[in-house]
Batch of 4 targets.
Target 1
Amino acid sequence: MSQRTIGVTEVALRDAHQSLMATRMALEDMVGACADIDAAGYWSVECWGGATYDSCIRFLNEDPWARLRTFRELLPNSRLQMLLRGQNLLGYRHYQDEVVQRFVDKSAENGMDVFRVFDALNDPRNMEIAMKAVKATGKHAQGTICYTISPLHTVEGYVKLAGQLLDMGAESLALKDMAALLQPQPAYDIIRGIKETYGEDTQVNVHCHATTGVTLVTLMKAIEAGADVVDTAISSMSLGPGHNPTESLVAMLEGTPYTTELDPDRLIRIRDHFAAIRPKYAAFESATLVDTDIFSSQIPGGMLSNMESQLKAQGAGDRTKEVMAEVPLVKADAGHPPLVTPSSQIVGTQAVFNVLMGRYKVLTGEFADLMLGYYGECIGERNPEVVEIARAQAKKDPITVRPADLLEPEWDKLSADAAALAGFDGSDEDVLTYAMFPGVAPGFFENRADGPKNVGKTADELAASAQAKSDSATAVTGPIKYKVSMGGREHSVTVERA
């Protein structure tokens, strides 16, 4: 039986630990697996971008550019892959075109090969400059379709978006399912539609999370439809809000017309490496294993927990169901954007405001901007009444142009501001770090010389910490004194030790 080889993108070095343990994994806990990852036969290794850049400087005192250069050195035979938020780069606002171009240039120069470029609203205009910049470097530009479900999202619509990305020069397409909403049949239909419309040689990569429990089957149907590459995570870093296990994919394809050609011995070593590492990060682990409510609510788990914390902070923890019912209404009023960073946070927070204060009595600044077009265009028409409320509150008019067209050149000012900071090293990479996170970068520059810190705890450290607490409790001699309040009066109580 002749077999078609399915490429595999391993996400253990980026999205797996981002999804499972809040992006806290230290570089030193990854390097030991790199030789085996490099030799296992993956199509690509996702190791940078997404939230890792933010987490490096915010929590780990680590230079993200140094992390990229380290991966380049340790994975010489692999395509390195990153996730890039189009015109937002790795920050949370739109950047002027020159900043986007410089970021892509520096990423390529430091070792990046495959750029998966997406936009939270699926607005191709917000991906175009980044895609062109990638093409100009000679690297692989992957245009991304963020998958969501709504009355307006159709197979035909996704196939049309694929064509727009191909027209932009996309070398491959990614069907990105960040909420585990992609069921097997829609996956098959979309990929067949792309292949039949644009040719069987159009490369399609499929990215699914595992949260709803159906997406390993989705990957099988995607492969049957012609998918060329699928994303997985080594089993010891998989499932829950993460991804499907690499070894399970390999086993699933046995006896079929498809093979991954991955080296099973290398996979075992990669698995064992991360199985030993993962317990260190237990404090950051998500509690979610399977959540099928996402199919009805369309609310990803991270978004739900964010809304619940907002409600509890307002003493309204009992109103979660009202907010969950409000989210689809707000999403519809905004033109049905996919719920992914930052649109999920914007829609979710506005739903909380609507429930607590009355519908659209108060708009967040971000939601007003979303309604006025400052994040880009959505698939659906925005509710004109809410647009008028946004116009009145924000005191600015709706726009139909690409949002970044309104930005003034900013590179020179960013460079000057970064240069004034203690610890700035004079590089374009440092200017870009400041541009992404101007509130965090100054502290990072100042403390960078202290070196990276590991926020995980080894078994010995956990045991030592528990022992220290025990020792301090038993080391105290003599009577224990307490202060007790009774009937509004405070009393001192002394208890002799046995």
Target 2
Amino acid sequence: MAIKQPADKSHFILPDLGEGVHEAELIRWRVTPGETVEEHQVIAEMETDKALVEVPSPWAGTIAKLNGNEGDVLVVGSILVEYGTGSKAGAASPPKAAKNASITAKAAEANGEREDAGTVVGSVDATLRVSDAFTRRRHDPATATRTGKALATPSVRRIARERGVDINAVAGTGRGGRVTASDVLAFTGDGNAVATPGRTAAAIPSPPPAPVTLSADGIAERIPFRGVRRKIANALDRSVKTAVHFTVVDEADVTALEAKRAEYGRVLGRKISLLPFVMTAVCRALRIHPSLNANVDDEQAEILIKGVINLGCAVDTEHGLMVPVIDEADTLSLLQLADSVGEVARSCRNRTIDRERLVGGTFTISNVGSYGGMFATPIINYPEVAILAAGRAAERVLTKNGMFYAGVILPLSLSCDHRVVDGAEGARFLNTVVKLLEDPETLLGD
């Protein structure tokens, strides 16, 4: 289906690229000024939460101006592309240009109203189509009041607070009546939705830190701090500045589990790594210790204990670390977990994973042992409250009941948010995981 077009077809407003997304990084332009494009032709590649999204043109026409440079962070609702007059898009006077071409253009039409071009859906391996069901509605002040609490993400609530807006008075046009960033900007009539290249509004310090003097000697290469690497840096920076980390370490004797794993391999005719076994143990332990299966809503000062277990699985790619989420992991069999891990890892490495599969986790597992590490101090995948790092399993001479034997140990490192999880509870959770891994019959039983 075609994108629902605003009345003024001389410009294309950056649409919502996913639920809760109010900004995106411009990775690459796929068109140039003066080029004639067809409806649905991809004009730009943008990145949100490490997911790559192709943005299609909502109509046919001639590109007059591209607002933004590669690496810029653009705000949803700002003008992405301006079209020339006299083209198939229809004659219309172009909006007033922004003062600086390196920042986003004005995000409202001349009359103070704005209509988003639509919501982009799909993944990068297919031609994107935008259904009318996802198209945004024009802001109507008459419907801007409600009696209940507004549905909105913490980032949207922050935008409303920064602009002095009562978010409960804003009409939500998102899925299920959610208030989006575009709704807040339209409500205020704010036409200056600006994002500085390489920096979001929340990341601007006040006052700014003193500049650091860097030596130019011996620089072999300069790599722009952008794309997935920037997303990783922002996420980790927020985690260490928000969550109060502590780490507990232990070792599991997985000698019997290794024998069981080899048995599974012979029966199934395929090799299964230790990771699905660790995931199974974690799922069982989270049911016993639910305080670790949670998110923190710092905007509302609430701890959200989750009833579902959505496991994040850290994946190393050439673009940087990505953490896809396996939903309802506790309902999957060992083989299904192994298949799911392989599927999301491939999708991350070839950049075809959907943004929806990178959010919504309740607990994360990092397999640092696949690259030779033993113990670690993993950083929590905020807003989750805990993360487990599995190290490299290694043979070791062990003792039991006064007897020596050759065994296999698996190092485990658990980091928790001390605001939510007490040290004793973190140790108990890790002890439960260890006991399950050391008893394969209980781990794999009903």
Target 3
Amino acid sequence: MHPRDRILSAAARVYAETGFRGATTRRIAAEAGVNEVTLFRHFGSKSSLISEAIGAERGALVVGLLPEIPVEPEAELRAWAEGVHELLREKRALIRTCMGDFEEHPEMMPPCGSPTAQAAEALCEYVERLRRVGLATAGVDARAAASMLMGALFADAMGRDIMTDLYRATPERALTEYVRLFLRGLGVSVA
């Protein structure tokens, strides 16, 4: 692995564990197996390094596509929701840290083009396609509906290991229920 990539990977890991203040250049350099001078030569500053590391992590996330022509909404959305949930769970430490550091370092939060924002937009478009083919009959606002499902996926991914009393169902069962509730709200017939 190229030293720059090792540094970015190490910076993302250290930042996720310790936040901005705890992610010292010394610790990142040690984790990456380089000296601190190399960090500054490649990135110029700690802030630039961490911002780029977070961007690299975001860039590595790919959300599955929803079909152009909906046929089996429950199965299609279930598979999609599983992929989104898995990505959120995988990066939950980094997401939590970014959220915790937001007030002091707003530049660490993803821009509108983040994978989760793209997923929400794809979901809105899918709702419109469900309407066009006559599968969704309720006059519900697509953006509000997408926000609700994305919120449920996000809350489950971030909170499952913290609020165990709230998330008693297995992730598989919970995702199935979130999708079914979402579809029923749209007026889609669900088994």
Target 4
Amino acid sequence: MRVVKEAEERRNEILDAADELFGQKGFDGTSTNDILVKVGIARGTLYHHFKSKEDIMDALIERYSVNLIGAAQEVALDKSVPVIERILRVVMALNVNSDNGSGKEVMEHIHRPQNALMHQKIQKVIISGVPPILTPIILEGIEQGLFNTPYPYECMEMVIVYANTIFDEDRADMTNEERTSRVLSFIFNIERLLGAESGSLMSVMQIFGKGRDGNE
């Protein structure tokens, strides 16, 4: 008997299968036929839900983004947490090395060379999605006298673009000494961008100050 499933359930089955296959074989190494076999559906069923393999990838990234950005947003809205600590927690919610459910799963295979397009797309999501989350926290900091800048959004945009580029896991060529130097200069300049007291953001080191193997 042919099994008929609800559209959303079938769509999620396709995404789950693609997620697993992309992780094993990479985006370019996975064919639509691989996905069909994995799910056990006809080609017409797949194309009823997705126009192409890239369309599947976009849907996967959207799903990851909802989880990543949603986690960061939840942290950002908790005003019981002090401003600077909340900023750190938002960054931790987006930290590619954290155990963050499906966000961790995508990052484990998104940095492989064969998944460069996925990597580029997730970077775009982070760069566009995170500054609007951090900006209200910066405005709170301004009200509390912690920061002094007329450009809170633009500051956060600069910070996220730099952090997402320089501290990206693809920078395997960076030595620990070079990484430490960049971390120190990064925090030094963030404090000046925000008009913060010198040294007030050095706790960011606990996030960015670790080597790729997780050691100080």
